Amino acid sequence: MGLKIKLKILDNLIWIILLILIIVNAFITPKFLTYNNIVNIFYHTSVLGFLVLAQGLCLISGNFDLSMESVMAFAPAIAILMMTKWVPGFNPILAIVVVLLVGAAIGLINGLFVIKVGIPPFLQTLSMLIILRGLVYFLIPMSIFRLSSKFIFLGSARAIFNIPVAVIVVLAFVYIMHVMLTRSTFGRSVLSIGGNLRASYVSGINTDRVLIAVFIISGVLAAFAGLLAVGRQASITNAMGEGLVFMAFAGSVMGGVNMRGGIGTALGMLGGLLVLGVIDNSLTLLGVNVYLVYATKGILIFAAVFLDNTKTRMREGLLYREEVRKFKINR
């Protein structure tokens, strides 16, 4: 088997894992392969999908964003309070724009403090996570219901063949991310910066601008996740999104995004997301205790780190052996 084929298999390992999970569950999990359940898997992973894309993009650039789960609650909270309390009758379509603008503003703040001020991304985004969650608890002590149908449309509506609009939206964003990373100058710059920041700067890339843009995109995607979550439950709670940042990390890394930066694809992130969705769905259908399901999520995070480390070592081993082979031939 040639080197290119081995590397290709390694890069697409998540899809092999997903296929194995589907085959196993087809035999042991009741009603797993039914149309409604498959749609259900996609629907219940749509919110996490936006966080996986956001975290994946940050990791590819050599950074990460811990604040996204709080952004997911804070951004729609501001818009909902405008519609229900601060500016009664506020246009729900404009409220959606407000959600995205709030997400972008938080991403900009994170980016400026990390890139311009030099605060480590862990400390900056962790502090932002805590600040925003505290504000959400303060602003929304009780759940808010009876939201405008236009505001919750993306998270609640159904399209042809009873497919949730949320599923269509997240798949569209996966495609957009794929095009951005593979065909745009910005995407190639993100990959280059994640691989070697100094070399990217020397080659003429405006690294500060690109990295700040990455944090802004992360904020917008997290805000979009909040918009879908609000639509799915037709309400907002102050605990919305708690703990999802870790699953977003697991999904992106399992999907092939290198924690060291410079490597990752949108399709791989989709694969990681679906693996998480299939595991969660199958455990639920099998009636596994909810606390064991929670423990399983911790195992998945460990598995993501282990898989990333193993793939990196295997890739380095394959490339090293190929260099040794070429050296022996040329002697």
List keywords for this structure.
mainly alpha, ABC transporter involved in vitamin B12 uptake, BtuC
Secondary structure topology:
Elements: H1 3-11, H2 13-28, H3 35-60, H4 68-86, H5 92-117, H6 121-139, H7 153-156, H8 165-183, H9 185-195, H10 197-202, H11 207-233, H12 244-254, H13 266-285, H14 290-330
Number of strands: 0
- Residue ranges: pLDDT <50 for 5 or more in a row? none
- Major sheet summary line: none
Mean pLDDT: 94
CATH architecture: Orthogonal Bundle
CATH class: Mainly Alpha
Structure characterization notes:
The two termini are 24 Å apart. Helix content is 77%, strand content 0%. The mean pLDDT is 94. Helix 1 (3-11) packs antiparallel against helix 14 (290-330), helix 8 (165-183) packs across helix 9 (185-195) and helix 8 packs antiparallel against helix 13 (266-285). It is globular. The chain is mostly helical. The chain is built from 14 helices and no strands. It has a single domain (3-330), classed as ABC transporter involved in vitamin B12 uptake, BtuC (Orthogonal Bundle), CATH 1.10.3470.
